[in-house]
Structures are given as structure tokens and as C-alpha cells.
Amino acid sequence: MRCEYATPQIAIGGAMNTREAYDQMQSHLDGITHIICLTRLCQHRFDDTPKAEILHYYMPDDGKFKPYRYWAACVEFALDVLENPHSKLLIHCAAGRNRSTSVAYAVLRCKGNYQSWEAEKAILRYADIIHKRDTDYPPLNSIKYKADVDLFYTRWKVEHK
């Protein structure tokens, strides 16, 4: 299980492909109210009675450019969730490295209170915590889709003034 809070309201995760790992995530990340699942097969199939509202938005991790719509769907959901200071959001993909960290970066940028370097620092701090707990998780030195998100953010900022 690779899950940890990057901010007090936003957790990032991955590797929840077994019932045991999913249950560990549920207990470790107490209080999650909403989930953005970026995998093809949503791991929440293990949950008979979901405790969280789930946005299942598959985003391929193919290294190709991700258009505006990918980021916008996730960011709009997240910003609605984060308006409530008691809400907690989990953003996860298969490994908790590429898609989830990139979406979390996009959310932090669009939320309005994070400069690019601050958002990146929060994401890399999450990755460092996971790496120390799970040595199979290699150190993360950058956000894979950062250039795509920065391009998205430029348009988002103009459209949401």
C-alpha cells in the first residue's frame, strides 16, 4: 500500500490492487470522504459499502500528452470537494507515482494557494515518505506530466478568473 497525505486534505496513493491493500488504505487514511481513481479497473470494487464518493476517471499512463479535458474533470471534482474544510480527498492510480502525483499537482496549482515550486515540493515530500516506508518504490525526482499540467494551468487560470 502506497498512500500518504501530501497536504492535510489531499492524499495520494497507489498499489491497492488486493483486498488487503485496499483495507490497509482505508484504515491508514482515516476520514477520506472522496476519491479520484485514475486506473482502468477501479480498486474500489473491493468495497461493498463505499464510505466515499468516487470519481472514476481513467487516464492512461502512456507518457503521451494529456489534453485539457483530462485535467479539468479531475480538478473540477477536487475543487468542489475541497471547498468543505472537513473533506479529505484521495487521488490514486496503479502505482501512486505518475498519474496521481500529476493530478494532485494540478489540483494544488488550481486551488490557488500553491505556486508551482510549492505544489511540486508537497508532491515530492509525499513520494519521499512512501520511499522510506517502501524501498521498492524508487525515489521520485520529478512529476511525470508536469509540463502538461503547466500548460493546462495556463489556460485554466485565464478561464477561471
Describe the structure.
With 161 residues, the chain is of the alpha/beta class. The chain has one domain: Protein tyrosine phosphatase superfamily (Protein-Tyrosine Phosphatase, Chain A, Alpha-Beta Complex), CATH 3.90.190. 43% of the residues lie in helices and 13% in strands. It is built from five helices and five strands, in the order ββαββαβααα. The chain has helices at 19-28, 68-82, 99-111, 116-133, 146-159, and strands spanning 2-5, 10-14, 34-37, 53-56, 89-92. It has a five-stranded mixed sheet, with helices on one face. Strand 1 (2-5) and strand 2 form a beta hairpin. It is globular and about 45 Å long. The model has no long low-confidence stretch (mean pLDDT 82).
Write the layout of secondary structure elements.
Blueprint: E1 2-5, E2 10-14, H1 19-28, E3 34-37, E4 53-56, H2 68-82, E5 89-92, H3 99-111, H4 116-133, H5 146-159
Parallel strand pairs: 2-5, 3-4, 3-5
Antiparallel strand pairs: 1-2
Helix pairs in contact: 2-3, 3-4, 3-5
Features:
single chain, 161 residues, Protein-Tyrosine Phosphatase, Chain A, 5 helices, 5 strands, 43% helix
Name given to the CATH architecture? Alpha-Beta Complex
Sequence of strands across the biggest β-sheet: 1-2-5-3-4
* Total of helices: 5
The level-1 CATH class: Alpha Beta
Average pLDDT, all residues: 82
- Name the shape in a single word: globular
What low-confidence regions span 5 or more consecutive residues with pLDDT below 50?
A: none
Portion of residues within helices = 40-55%
- The CATH homologous superfamily is named Protein tyrosine phosphatase superfamily
User: Biggest sheet, open or closed, and with what strands and sense?
Assistant: 5 strands, mixed
Number of individual domains:
1
In what range is the share of β-strand residues?
Answer: 5-15%
Give the quaternary arrangement of the chains: single chain
Q: What is Rg?
A: 14 Å
End-to-end separation in angstroms reads 38 Å
Q: Which structural class do the helices and strands define?
A: alpha/beta
Number of strands: 5
